[in-house]
Design goal:
Radius of gyration: 16 Å
Distance between the termini: 49 Å
Order of helices and strands: HHHHHHHH
Largest sheet: none
Protein name: Transcription regulator TRAF family
Organism: Helianthus annuus (Common sunflower)
Pathway: Protein modification; protein ubiquitination
Helix content: 55-70%
Number of domains: 1
Pfam family, one: BTB
Number of helices: 8
Strand content: under 5%
Structural class: mainly alpha
Shape: elongated
Length: about 130
C-alpha cells in the first residue's frame, strides 16, 4: 500500500537494481519512526489523527515521500495541507505550536513552506485587533 500512495517509494523500487525490496532505506523520512508509523497506517486505511502537534511532521514526511494527489486521490499531503490552512494556522496558539514543532524538521519544513506560513499566520494574528 505504501507504493500505491508514495511516488518516492514507487521510484525507489523501479530504480533499484536489487530484487529484494524488503529493505528500503527510509531513514531520512522527516519526523522519525513515529511519523512513519502514522504514514504507514494512513496508507493502510487506518484513521490517523492530525493535530497541531504532529501536522508539520506529517506534512513534511508526506511531501518527502511524494504522497500527493498525483499519486492517488485524497492522499496525505492534501489532508495535512487542509488541516494546516483550515485549522492549525487559523489561531495564534495553533500557528505558534506548529512553528515550534518545525524546529526538528529543518530544513524540510522550510522547503515545503510551513515555516513561512506559520510566521505569516502569527504576524497576521498579532497585528489584528481583537474583535468583541
Amino acid at each position: 500500500m505504501l507504493v500505491a500512495k508514495s511516488n518516492y517509494i514507487k521510484r525507489l523500487i523501479l530504480e533499484s537494481e536489487e530484487h529484494d525490496f524488503g529493505m528500503l532505506d527510509l531513514s531520512n523520512v522527516p519526523g522519525g519512526a513515529d511519523i512513519f508509523d502514522k504514514l504507514a497506517r494512513f496508507c493502510y486505511g487506518v484513521k490517523v489523527d492530525i493535530t497541531v502537534n504532529n501536522v508539520a511532521a506529517l506534512h513534511c514526511a508526506a511531501k518527502y515521500l511524494e504522497m500527493t494527489e498525483e499519486c492517488c486521490e485524497h492522499n496525505l499531503v492534501s489532508h495535512t495541507h487542509g488541516f494546516l490552512t483550515q485549522v492549525a494556522l487559523t489561531s495564534l496558539t495553533g500557528a505558534i505550536t506548529v512553528l515550534n514543532s518545525c524546529e526538528g524538521l529543518l530544513p524540510v519544513a522550510q522547503q515545503v513552506n510551513i515555516v513561512n506560513q506559520c510566521v505569516e499566520a502569527v504576524s497576521v494574528k498579532v497585528n489584528c485587533p481583537i474583535l468583541h
